């Protein structure tokens, strides 16, 4: 998975929001509301933690994929583009670079 995988998934999730709930899991989640979507993110987070602590690497991969997917559904439900999250990570990367620079002894 790279950034384009997440961008494709974001587009698919947006397209499936208004699909038939009988045919689409994303539409089914939306029909149940924001509370249910948020709850799923929490559940998948817990399952990811359990897999990290006591599961195989394959189990951790599966749970991490479930978590990322449900987080993407949650962001979409709040109309927050993935690009905003990526931009925040970029910003923090820049901040950490500045902190490293500031901590470096002057010569
Ligand atoms: N990546 C995923 C994905 N990951 C996990 N899941 C679904 O997430 C659900 C999680 O299972 P759970 O047992 O936790 O949940 P559940 O029992 O179905 O629901 P609850 O009882 O908790 O309400 C399963 O039904 C999985 O199929 C996903 N469903 C869809 N996608 C992507 O979303 C796209 C659109 O999917 P549809 O909306 O179904 O067309 C697909 O093409 C995929 O790319």
From TrEMBL:
It catalyses: 1-(5-phospho-beta-D-ribosyl)-ATP + H2O = 1-(5-phospho-beta-D-ribosyl)-5'-AMP + diphosphate + H(+). Its EC number is 3.6.1.31. Pathway: Amino-acid biosynthesis; L-histidine biosynthesis; L-histidine from 5-phospho-alpha-D-ribose 1-diphosphate: step 2/9. GO terms for molecular function: phosphoribosyl-ATP diphosphatase activity. It is found in: Cytoplasm. InterPro entries: HisE, PRib-ATP_PPHydrolase-like. It comes from the Bacteria. Belongs to the PRA-PH family. This is Phosphoribosyl-ATP pyrophosphatase. The lineage of its organism: Bacteria, Pseudomonadati, Pseudomonadota, Alphaproteobacteria, Sphingomonadales.
């Amino acid at each position: 998975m790279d950034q384009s995988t997440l961008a494709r998934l974001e587009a698919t999730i947006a397209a499936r929001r208004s699909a038939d709930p009988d045919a689409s899991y994303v539409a089914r989640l939306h029909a149940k509301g924001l509370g249910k979507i948020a709850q799923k993110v929490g559940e998948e987070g817990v399952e990811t933690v359990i897999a990290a602590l006591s599961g195989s690497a394959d189990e951790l991969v599966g749970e991490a994929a479930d978590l990322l997917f449900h987080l993407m559904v949650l962001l979409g439900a709040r109309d927050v583009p993935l690009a905003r999250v990526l931009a925040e990570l970029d910003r923090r990367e820049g901040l950490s670079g500045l902190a490293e620079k500031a901590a470096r002894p002057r010569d």
